[in-house]
Model the fold of this input.
Amino acid sequence: CYDGLTARLVERAGFDLTFMTGYGVSAVHGLPDTQLISYGEMVASARLITGSLKKIPCIGDGDTGYGALPNVERTVRGYVSAGLAGMMIEDQVTPKRCGHTKGKDVVGFDEAVGRVRAAVEARRRLREEKGDQNGDLVL
Done:
């Protein structure tokens, strides 16, 4: 899904969850999925989507984490705050390209693992700060 309407349509169709797609959010802004949509625009879209859902969770496209490792932590915090139930992080170089296009490059193994570790650590800290409330996020 990419906005409140598409989220509600997914829910109404009886699916168990929905996914906020970076491609879709980019497209409704008239942009290609090449990381021209910012972290802030994705968090705002996530808030609209989760606010429109009544019964099902939403997983969000976290792109590459929107920068260095501190940005990955910020993305985790923002997505949890927006009400997302999960987040995926890509292993592409920045700026990234849409996953189904040619010409993509990926980061090295250590950098990819570093992004995942940063996300897991951010989730752990959120759990400590919130006493396990609002710190749950599937990565």
